[in-house]
Amino acid sequence: MQAPPTPDSRSVIERTFDVLGAFDAGNVTLSVSEISRRAGIPVATTYRIVSKLLDWGALERIGENRYTIGLRLWEVASLSPRHAALRHAAISPMVDLHAQTHSVVMLSVGDRYEGVWLESVSGAAGPCHKTWSTGNRFPLHATACGLVLLAQAPAAVREHVYAAGLPAYTDLTTTDAGVLRGQVDQVTRRGFAVCGEELTEGIAGISVPVLDANGAGVAALGLVTESPVEDSARHIALTLEAARRISRALTRRTRESEPAPTASRAGRGRNATRPDPA
Questions:
Q1: Strands 114-121, 137-139: parallel, antiparallel or unpaired by DSSP?
Q2: Residue 230 phi/psi, 5° resolution?
Q3: Which of helix, strand or coil describes residue 233?
Q4: How far apart are CA 32 and CA 37, in angstroms?
Q5: Alpha-carbon distance 121 to 96, whole Å?
Q6: What is the distance between the alpha carbons of residues 28 and 42, in angstroms, rounded to a whole number?
Q7: 3-state secondary structure at position 20
Q8: Where are the alpha helices (DSSP H) in the chain?
Q9: Among 76, 75, 185, 160, residue whose Cα is nearest residue 110
Q10: Taking the complete model, does pTM exceed 0.70, yes or no?
Q11: Taking the CA atoms of the chain, what radius of gyration do you get in angstroms?
């Protein structure tokens, strides 16, 4: 006798997140049955969740029975103050770097054990590969930006990545944890990372850290180009300068957003005039 199916213990919120998580760079539009299969949720339940998300604007209908991520969800995500400030500070230097190198310029941030492409400037040609599309996730061990993000990450995150196994995407992907440790240490010493064909054949990358007002790494700025990188020393120097411009812009925005000292706080100095007693 076949055992009865195990009840789904996920809450409504968890299943809703799973429905949204069914979409990715390779699955931009999905039918209800495809969402159901990818999310592991019964079709009837999936349909109810999709209908609610459609009403709110988190999903949009494409054709009769296909859906995609909606504009309302993008609007909510764009309110993230940390990433909004980063993108605002980065876009002008990224445009200039693209004009100087004629390469795809990417800005990425770390999210737990993966990287996320936050912004890109690629010109009319578009990204070299769908892997590099804005909003897509990427492995930290197989890209130049990923190495920079690993160097910035807390020690616990690095140790998790080292211990979790390093899948190979090409014949050149680093799959040995010891070798990866050495690469990350080298990024810390040199202040930049270079990778060639570790995630995608024929694609190389250069990346440097972006620092906040306190000098802490908050993002990685990268060039994505055909392998091998031509005139890599020049490309590294230009990318470093662009990252410095972004860091300076972040520092200015941070200082401008800080509240001005109040009269009571400003008057606490040694020479402050004391009020006359009543």
A1: antiparallel
A2: -80, 140
A3: helix
A4: 9
A5: 10
A6: 21
A7: helix
A8: 12-21, 32-39, 43-56, 71-77, 81-101, 144-152, 155-163, 177-190, 232-257, 263-266
A9: 160
A10: yes
A11: 23
pLDDT tens for each residue of 251-260: 887 777 666 5
Alpha-carbon gap, residue 16 to 12, rounded angstroms: 6
Helices 43-56 and 32-39: crossing angle in degrees, nearest 10, is 110
Question: Which tokens in the block code for residue 48?
Answer: 């109810």
Residue 139 to residues 25, 102, 144, 225, 248, Cα–Cα distance (Å)? 14, 25, 10, 18, 28
CB 206 within 8 A of CB 222: yes
Contact between 205 and 227 under an 8 Å Cβ cutoff? The reply is no
The structure tokens listed for 218 are: 């908050």
How far apart are alpha carbons 38 and 226 in whole angstroms?
33
All structural domains of the chain = 12-75 (1.10.10.10), 80-256 (3.30.450.40)
Residues in the chain: 278
pLDDT of residue 133: 67
Confidence grade of residue 8 (pLDDT, cut at 50, 70, 90): low
pLDDT in tens, 32-60: 999 999 999 999 999 999 999 999 999 99
**CA–CA distances in Å: residue 201 to residues 12, 94, 210, 214:** 41, 24, 27, 37
From residue 137, alpha-carbon distances to 130, 132, 224, 252, 268 in Å are 11, 8, 15, 29, 50
Cβ-proximal residues to 115 (8 Å cutoff; 6+ apart), any chain: 108, 109, 137, 138, 139, 140, 143, 145, 146, 149, 220
